[in-house]
């Protein structure tokens, strides 16, 4: 794990590959397209992508933990009420 060993090379390699693919896509776009907005929004999209990945990882770990502990999983049902 990178946090314990201090080896961040896989993370940096993945970051470089994602950045390269992003720039290839941007330069392949039509020249009429405003590329400045894409450059400004790309870091936000990248952070959102990794945030969602972290959420999915936490959900997977929690579900596997529940399975290992043989907890009974129960579906929650909600009583819906319309606008009154």
Provide an overview of this structure.
By secondary structure, this protein is mainly α. Helix content is 69%, strand content 0%. It contains three helices and no strands. The radius of gyration is 21 Å and the shape is flat. The model has no long low-confidence stretch (mean pLDDT 78).
Terminal CA distance reads 54 Å
Write down how many β-strands occur, each being a DSSP E stretch of 2 or more residues: 0
Quick check: average pLDDT?
78
Q: Globular, elongated, flat, extended or rod-shaped: what is the shape? A: flat
Strand content: under 5%
Helix content: 55-70%
Derived from helix and strand composition plus strand pairing, the structural class reads mainly alpha
Provide the low-confidence segments as ranges: none
How do the helices and strands follow one another from N- to C-terminus?
Answer: HHH
Counting H and I runs of at least 4 residues, what is the number of helices? 3
From the alpha-carbon coordinates, what is the Rg to the nearest angstrom?
Answer: 21 Å
> Sheet with the most strands?
none
């Amino acid at each position: 794990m990178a946090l314990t060993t201090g080896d961040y090379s896989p993370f940096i390699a993945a970051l470089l590959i994602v950045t390269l693919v992003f720039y290839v896509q941007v330069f392949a776009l039509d020249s009429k397209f405003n590329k400045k907005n894409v450059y400004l929004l790309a870091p936000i999209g990248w952070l959102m992508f990794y945030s969602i990945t972290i959420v999915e990882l936490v959900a997977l770990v929690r579900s596997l933990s529940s399975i290992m502990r043989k907890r009974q999983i129960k579906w929650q049902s909600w009583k819906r009420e319309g606008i009154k």
